[in-house]
Specification:
- The complex is a heterodimer of chains A (about 650) and B (about 260).
- With about 650 residues, chain A is mainly alpha-helical.
- Chain A is about 55% helix and about 5% strand.
- In chain A, the strands form two sheets. In chain A, strands 2-1-3-4 form a four-stranded parallel β-sheet. In chain A, strands 6-5-7-8 form a four-stranded parallel β-sheet.
- Chain A is elongated, with a radius of gyration of 30 Å.
- The N and C termini of chain A lie far apart (about 95 Å).
- In chain B, α3 crosses α4.
- Classes of the chains: A mainly alpha (about 650), B alpha/beta (about 260).
- The structure holds iron/sulfur cluster (2 copies).
- The site of one iron/sulfur cluster has 14 residues of chain A, from α12 and α14.
- One iron/sulfur cluster binds next to α12 and α14 of chain A.
């Protein structure tokens, strides 16, 4: 066949030594054609029997009232990067990710190949693989099929590798709760391999009975594959492009409650179309669980199971059910173990947004009073009565402000320095504030603090108490507006996030930045140490994943010496265990997250741990104290900067005296 | 069981307070208010009794319009309806002493014929601790004060009463009765969004103090038996003593001081 092709097209032959097209399967009898048509119909019907049900559940779910199809440019870019280029899949797990990408790209390449393949069965020659004439057919026959062949090789190798990984290497996060292997994944992998193998073989055999047989083999694989898709986790093939395109648009976006009957995710009737779509998109890859600090330290929370729990609920009860979501399908205890660190949402390759789901479930429990927790109740009462999470008297904050001689904000200063609960009431937090104030004074920045400041509502927000959150947000917004505050700077990433994003539901917050951003802008004016100190910086979840700020705090931490990195750092940073209101709840199950993370940081051999969040700071201080004496120093970046200023001063004095 | 809980709105704990120009009360401007602490525990007891035995919880509060916020909070936590004995301004009720206020409260709840009336032990602002017990007298009901625990026993109640120095008293009494509740023995529930939304539809009967007085002239404020003469902020006293000597001597001196001077051990 090649020979004849070659001879009939001498001008191309000069460039392409062996133009590649699938072997001609020959003619199909009328019985074969009828059989083919029946099989296709059967396959499509079997596909639809399941897919139709899923689609119906998605469409019958409550609409997302706050969803807007805006930012089309960003959506298109995310789609291109995450779906087409498989950026997330590859970046977070390079080898298996690349293998997956090759399978995906081969599928794309095969769109035309498959259409052409099926058409051949009905005697059509869409791409001219049989009657090679005209530029279209030449382009396809001589280039496209060959290219598809290359993808097929890559895909076959990849799927074989993934098969070996799943069934022989068996990473724990792929496990199902019952520890059974997913045999359907094996079948699917076998089918994909067979599809590629039959295609590749068809490029090498000549036309004749072999080609005919291969054609049928390829076709049967296809027709079995199609209905398997919606019946297995391979449903993500169809759904995840939509999930990614229709994302809520920002990280951990907690939708506003709508109307008087919305208390969060209480029952099936509260599941929105986005949540249902996401629940059915999960590909059970377990990346979320692999990175979950709670799951890694022996808690029962498993973000993958949270998503799959919703899916089982939807399968069994549907989106109109009044049955509570927390109970048989998801446990309340698990949901309240989440630190809202966001590692899961950040990792998920199919665009599932865990935080709106987990916080949504918490809202459902807290807003209706179903969550009964001694510590939680105490926290909420403290927030209501004292307006700070530590439950201390506001007089304590006043005393601190007086003692530190912090100016009161009166509109004449550039910054409103937000103390936050930790900065205003906690001894360690106050130390950070004092250091930051020293640095601000050194830099000549003007600032003032509010006379009265309430908690931003972060712990209430994350624990799902919308009543307290709203009261706090509104009161603070009003106070800031009265004082005409334009810019806030805060030492706490939780305050920054809550002010900037979560308060938007109730008004327009002033511009707000984290002190690392402020300090980084003035990096040049801060003295650099030339000691051989090794500094490891711990990325706070709410600064890194939530705000995308990674380099600024590092640039300040590096004032103290040279930076080393922990194994998990930047967007893969491991939580300190305090987020999501958990700092105020009772003792953890299993190992403490903070101890685990502190060990990771100590393991770098650093002599200083740089922190940028008062919560991380307290957590690590306790963890380090518990672990023994020769632990590294723990300093907030503001303390690092202040120390540098202090260290440089005597030298300057000496220099000026000379 | 029909339970009435008398609640009072008081200046928030730990609020920064100033004495007003007349030296008779605190300057209420800029002060935030909340539910009197022991009243919050009384409400919690009532709600738990209702959850266990069924019935109705009604809150009653005497105060100006702002007290409505505290009333709604009580409704949000689970009370079924409320009676707001509303004064026209901040000063109208100041003309009454504890007896006068108890008379007003008694008049506003008499018709309810409740099985149980609960109040907090005392208010965080005036701290008289009398309103509840006077109310019992006026209603002609048995009462017990400083109650930590209430159990239903047959047709009556079994209650646990706190005495001094770690002593307790178990009392049985028949209903209807009046109990004043001590803080701290149970956990307070938090107000929820759902509770607040439901509270909007619950009944709050507003009775103006003036109307009540007009209907029954005996309720008019008489010359109060107790007069608030002057209020002062507590003086800050700080005395620090360094105890010298060996650690053992210092510890012995410390124990002696704690025992005989400060009398905390
Ligand atoms: S947010 Fe963090 S703690 Fe919560 S489920 Fe996700 S990974 Fe786990
Ligand atoms: S939720 Fe996302 S990351 Fe987790 S298992 Fe499912 S697809 Fe993977």
């Amino acid at each position: 066949m090649y020979v004849s092709t070659f001879l009939s097209l001498p001008s191309y032959g000069a460039f392409l030594v062996s133009p590649i097209v699938p072997a001609d399967p020959g003619t199909f009898s009328i019985i074969e054609k009828v059989l083919l048509a029946v099989l296709i119909m059967l396959s499509v019907v079997l596909f639809w029997l399941r897919f139709g049900v899923v689609l119906d559940k998605i469409l019958k779910s409550r609409r997302d009232p706050s969803f807007r199809l805006t930012h089309l440019g960003k959506r298109a870019w995310d789609f291109f990067s995450e779906v087409i280029c498989q950026s997330k899949v590859i970046r977070q797990r390079p080898l298996p990710g690349l293998a997956h990408a090759f399978v995906f790209w081969a599928f794309l390449a095969f769109a035309l190949v498959t259409t052409n393949h099926v058409a051949t069965g009905f005697g059509l020659d869409l791409l001219g693989s049989r009657n090679r004439s005209g530029w279209v057919s030449i382009a396809f026959s001589d280039v496209y099929f060959g290219l598809a062949g290359l993808f097929a090789v890559a895909c076959a190798i990849s799927i074989a590798g993934l098969f070996v990984r799943r069934f022989f290497a068996r990473p724990t996060w792929l496990a199902r709760p019952d520890h059974e292997l997913s045999y359907e994944s094996g079948v699917i992998a076998g089918l994909i391999f067979a599809l590629m193998a039959t295609y590749l073989a068809s490029l090498y055999v000549g036309s004749g009975p072999w080609a005919h047989g291969l054609w049928w083999a390829h076709t049967l694989c296809l027709l079995v594959f199609l209905p398997l898709v919606p019946h297995t986790k391979h449903l993500h093939l169809v759904l995840s492009p939509f999930t990614i395109f229709f994302s809520r648009g920002s990280f951990s976006a907690i939708p506003p409650l709508e109307g008087d009957e919305d208390f969060g995710l209480v029952a099936g009737k509260d599941l929105t179309q986005l949540v249902t779509l996401q629940a059915y998109s999960c590909v059970e890859c377990g990346r979320c669980t692999e990175h979950c600090p709670a799951n890694n330290t022996g808690k029962i929370l498993n973000p993958k199971e949270v998503v799959l729990g919703l899916r089982s609920y939807l399968n069994d009860l549907g989106p109109a059910s009044e049955e509570p979501l927390l109970g048989k399908y998801n446990s309340q205890e698990a949901v309240f173990e989440c630190t809202t660190c966001g590692a899961c949402e950040f990792q998920c390759p199919v665009g599932i947004e865990h935080l709106p789901i987990i916080v949504g479930l918490r809202r459902g429990a807290t807003n209706t009073g179903a969550w009964e927790d001694d510590y939680g109740g105490k926290l909420f009462n403290a927030l209501e009565r004292n307006s700070n999470a530590l439950g201390m008297s506001a007089l304590e904050r006043d005393k601190f402000v007086q003692k530190q001689e912090l100016p009161i904000f009166d509109g004449s200063q550039e910054y409103c320095l937000w103390l936050g609960c930790m900065g205003g009431y906690d001894p360690r937090g106050r130390e950070i504030i004092s250091s930051f104030v020293e640095v601000m004074r050194h830099l000549g920045a003007t600032f003032g603090v509010l006379r009265k400041e309430k908690c931003t509502g972060d712990p209430a927000r994350r624990l799902g108490n919308d009543l307290v959150f709203q009261q706090l947000a509104e009161a603070n917004l009003e106070a800031l507006q009265q004082q005409k505050v334009k810019k806030i700077v805060s030492i706490c990433p939780h305050c920054v996030r809550t002010i900037q994003e979560d308060w938007k539901e109730f008004g327009l917050p002033p511009e707000v930045e984290h002190h690392s951003e402020f300090l980084a802008r003035h990096r040049a004016e801060l003295p650099q140490s030339n000691s051989n100190e090794k500094v490891v910086f711990h990325d706070p979840c709410y600064l890194g994943r939530y705000r995308n700020v990674y380099d600024e705090p590092r640039s300040i931490a590096s004032l103290a010496g040279s930076l080393v990195e922990a194994e998990r750092s930047r967007e893969r940073s491991f939580c300190c265990g305090a987020g999501g209101g958990l700092a105020f709840l009772g003792e953890e199950q299993g190992e403490r997250v903070s101890h685990n993370r502190a060990q990771q940081l100590v393991a770098t051999g650093a002599t200083t741990i740089g922190a940028a969040c008062p919560f991380c700071n307290t957590m690590f201080r306790d963890a380090l104290a518990a672990s023994g004496d020769n632990s590294p120093r723990l300093l907030d970046i503001a303390q690092i900067a202040a120390n540098q200023i202090k260290a440089a001063q005597p030298a300057q004095v000496a220099a000026s005296e000379n | 069981m029909k339970i009435i809980v008398a609640i009072k709105q008081v200046p928030e704990r730990d609020a920064r307070i100033r004495i007003d120009s007349g030296n008779k009360w605190i300057d209420l401007e800029d002060v935030e208010f909340s539910m009197n602490e022991s009243d919050a525990y009384a409400l919690e007891e009532a709600l738990q009794l209702k959850e266990a035995h069924g019935g109705e919880v009604i809150v009653v509060s005497a105060g100006p319009e702002r007290a409505g916020k505290t009333i709604r909070e009580a409704l949000a936590k689970g009370a079924d309806r409320a009676i707001h004995l509303q004064s026209s301004d901040e000063t109208e009720l100041a003309a009454y002493d504890a007896l006068g206020v108890a008379r007003l409260l008694a008049a506003s709840i008499q018709d309810e014929k409740a099985d149980l009336v609960l109040t907090g032990l005392q208010s965080d602002d005036l701290g008289l601790g009398q309103t509840g017990v006077i109310l019992a007298e006026l209603l002609g009901l048995p009462h017990a004060s400083l109650i930590l625990k209430i159990e239903v026993a047959g047709n009556g109640l079994k209650v646990l009463r706190e005495l001094e120095d770690g002593w307790f008293q178990h009392i049985e009494l028949a209903t209807p009765a009046v109990l004043t509740i001590q803080s701290g023995n149970t956990k307070l529930r938090y107000a929820t969004l759902m509770g607040i939304k439901k509270a909007k539809t619950k009944e709050v009967r507003v009775i103006a103090v003036a109307d009540l007085v007009a209907s029954d002239p005996s309720l008019k404020p008489t010359a109060p038996s107790v007069v608030l003469d002057q209020v002062k902020l507590p003086h800050k006293q700080r005395s620090t003593q360094l105890l010298g000597g060996s650690p053992a001597e210092a510890a012995a001196a410390l124990v002696e001081k704690l025992q005989f001077e400060v009398r905390v051990i």
